[in-house]
Design brief:
By secondary structure, the chain is α/β, with parallel strands linked by helices. Helices cover 41% and strands 15% of the residues. The strands form four sheets. It has a seven-stranded mixed β-sheet with strand order 2-8-7-6-5-3-4, with helices on both faces. It is globular and about 65 Å long. The relative contact order is 0.16. The chain binds pyridoxal-5'-phosphate. The site of pyridoxal-5'-phosphate has 12 residues, from helix 3.
Amino acid sequence: MEIYLDNAATTKPCKASLDAVVETMTTNYGNPSSLHKKGLDAYLQVSKARLAVATALGCDTDEVVFTSCATESSNTALKSVAKKYGRRKKKIIASAVEHSSVKNVLKYLEENGYEVIYIKPKNGKYEASDFINAADDNTFLVTCMMVNNETGYLFPVKEIFKGIKRLHPDVICHCDAVQGFMKLPFTVENIGCDLLSISAHKVYAPKGSGVLYIKKGIKIHPLLLGGGQEKGVRSGTESVPMISGFGAAVKFLRPKVEDNFIKYRHLKKILLENLEETDYISINSDENCVPYIINITVSGVRSEIMLHFLETKEIYVSSGSACSKGKDSGVLENFGLSGDAADSALRISLSYQTTDSDILALCDAIKQGHEQILKK
Ligand code: PLP
């Protein structure tokens, strides 16, 4: 039986989500903007999902904008803020280990006259003061992810955003919460952000839907112009099935967040106990990291080789350094790994369905893989 441990890349949709998608496609297939009953029914499906997400984020429903993915959410957020709030002030502060959906927008903004200060971890660790001290009167935007997708590093986003706002109340704070949503208990008010990006396919819903939380009063410049759906922030007919699936998955997961977290901690403990006994495996996700994303290095075996060995056993993990077209993201090096250690890194990411025996099978397979690959 297959063992899927690549849940930071994407998740298998849960039954509640699939049921909602099918029902929406077969029954509530109208256009939410149509004036007749079919339109209203579809509109109500979107409203139901909006309420589920808003409740989970602790915000009002009119602060939730559906997009196609978190990449779109972050693009809209960052480009908007630059356009609306970056006329006189030019400085942006960001962590140096953001996902490419943020990093590449920052690169674009740099090419268009903005200055980006990238905050690097010191000895593998971030302090909120690293961000707060970097902000000055020329700063208009801070963006920091909640959980790093490669190592599971948990950022002190609340301390960062609240600390910055205390000294510079006009600075806009954006959070990429893709790897934290529905896994960590937080609300937007609690972390003090103005904008927040999340994605459906990381929380057991299908690909094709995301959300941008926009705090009341924040001005947005839409990426897409058209029919003015989503209060003019995101034109284009709403993907009612995907949005319904997103809402259903959130409703399904929300009561389980705390129990799942306890389970992830237990699973990580088993994994570490099993792997730490070897002298060729090192753990790159320390106590500052969430328990459901675990990055390890299997010395002497390149990530892809081990990944494909595990694949032969129907165990699916990802290479530890998110490569795009052969180019390393550099995240692991930022966290202090050598190039060799990063080349041999694997990312194991858990789901609420992962069992103790899945983890034991993975540990056995990695040890077996190490022996067999090095023999060749
Ligand atoms: N941000 C983080 C931290 C991610 O891990 C990902 C996906 O891997 C994204 C953003 C992009 O999400 P989406 O696929 O919905 O665009």
